[in-house]
Amino acid sequence: MAYEGIRAHRPLIMGRRGAVATNHPVATAAGMDVLRAGGSAADAAVAVSLTLGVVEPHMSGLGGDGFYHHWSARTGRAETFAGTGQAPAAATVARYRAEGGIPMDGPLSIQTPGKVAGLAALHAAHGAKTWGALFGPAVEAARDGFAATHALRHFCGENRKRIGADPTSAAIFLPGGAPLAVGALVTQPALAATLQRLAAEGPEDFYRGALARDIAADMATIGALVAQGDLAAVAPLFAPPVGIAWRGFEVRQTPAPSMGFAMLQMLRIVEQADLEGMGWGSAALLHLMIEAKKRAFLDREAEAGREAPDFAALLSDERTASHVAAIGARAASLPVRAMAEADTTYFCVVDAEDNAVSAIQSINGAFGSGVTGPRTGILLNNRMTYWHLDGGHANELAPGRRVRHTMNAPMVMKDGKPWMVFGTPGADNQVQVNFQVMVSCAVFGMDPQQALEAPRWTSSQPGQESNYPHGGNEVLTIERGFGEAAIAGLRERGHEVKVVGDLEGACSVEAIRMLDNGVRMAGSDPRRDGWAAAY
After folding, report:
1. What 3-state DSSP class applies to 530?
2. Cis peptide before 469 (omega within 30 of 0)
């Protein structure tokens, strides 16, 4: 089934041997070079990950975290590798209460970075090329420079205060006190040297070697709580994905500490409804999906952060039925709690052997803490802002604990093999936009490029934001491409609608769809710098 109602303005990229879709053309090229040279999907993922950390510095990097979801065609096995650091040993509730709370940026917002551990675990399990052979594009982009895009200039301007407070960050991203000009070459020599060391010495050096000592020295210089012992304590998490059967597919998600299960709950809530009969983009379908999102977010807040959430109960027929029964004809007001925006990057890879990687990584907020290590050139995260300071909460801060993450890396299976890998950055918007992409492709037959360019919505609830203290409101943000009739229908159902322009909604999705004949269809979102390639 093909959907004729959405015209995509970018071409659908197709190939027979491999495909890469990332949020930056330079990173996509890095992944494609690895695949063409005979590398595996895991090898290409390492090259893409490292390169994105250079050319999309406001989204991810060595100073953040990442989740990597891998499918092995040889073994038929799916695994997730989570590189997520713990709260520093010195990060106590009492310490932050004395500070007046956890700051949104600056040194005290920095948590121990875990991305390198997760990336190294993925490579150790499934890499075909050597670790050091995958650093070339990232080193080149950091050493020789890459051209600033419109998106990077925009983020520099929006976050001028955050990055301007740190002299090292300001020198790189606010030269002369102004946001980078489009086309300006951005060089990061200290980061290039760090990447070269990491390539030569291996990931162990990042946590327990000479590089770890330099990172810890940077942390001490800037006044962060992360110490050498915190770095030495980092270890990757290995776990199978959590999944559901859904309308002839198996939809898999990254498990805790990811909150990806919320997407699975949304799918379960709408599973038995006549989605096709409602029609794509209709007010009836949009209302149902939005209300399903609201119900799932109640469970997300209550359960996410526990070391072992009860996924069986959360995704059970009984829990699903209770949510379905609670959805009415009018928009419900469902505050998540009685009582900031984060940024990330997503990419996916499929290689010639049909191995697949769905990957997401982040430094949390745009430019993370805003602080760059003066020795290492590593831009550091502000992941501490996700912790709770109130006692008894599932996500309460404790030294050595791992915080919950909005990051999630879906993979959809059909007949025992990958059907589509896709995902998006966007903090609390991630799972709800992934939900829309899944319905558009699996129910209405859109190809990836159509689904990614199609109008989208994002729902906010009071108290839903993952940064603490929680923000949020009752607003439904919707792109005008849905049309006047659908928007009017939502208002009639009680939704507080905010209409934005075409391609002005949240997130930046990347996707690869695998056909039975071996063709890979790759799509990229024009809302940022996304780019897809295949051969």
Report:
1. coil
2. yes
Arithmetic mean of pLDDT, 103-124: 98
- For residues 246 and 414, what is the distance between their CA atoms, to the nearest angstrom? 10
Whole-structure pTM value: 0.95
The answer to whether the beta carbons of residues 81 and 118 sit under 8 Å apart is yes
Check residue 108 and report its DSSP letter: G
Tell me, rounded to whole angstroms, the distance of Cα 150 from its chain centroid.
21
Element (H, E) at 326: helix 317-326
Q: Which of 168, 344, 385, 406 is catalytic?
A: 344
Q: 3-state SS of the chain: helix, strand, coil percent to 5?
A: 40, 20, 40
Residue 508 scores a pLDDT above 60:
yes
Smallest CA-to-CA distance from 86 within 69, 110, 102 is with 110
For residue 214, the model assigns a pLDDT of: 98
What's residue 3's pLDDT? 77
Structure tokens at 249: 């597919």
Q: How far is residue 28's CA from residue 21's CA, in Å, rounded to a whole number?
A: 6
> Is the model's pLDDT at 218 over the cut of 50?
yes
Across 367-387, average pLDDT: 97
Q: Token digits for 379?
A: 């831009």
pLDDT at 106 over 70: yes
Cα end-to-end span (Å), the chain = 24
Whether 22 is a known active-site residue: answer no
**Of 217, 171, 201, residue with least CA distance to 376:** 217
64-77 mean pLDDT: 97
Closest to 512 in 3D by CA, of 48, 43, 20, 36: 20
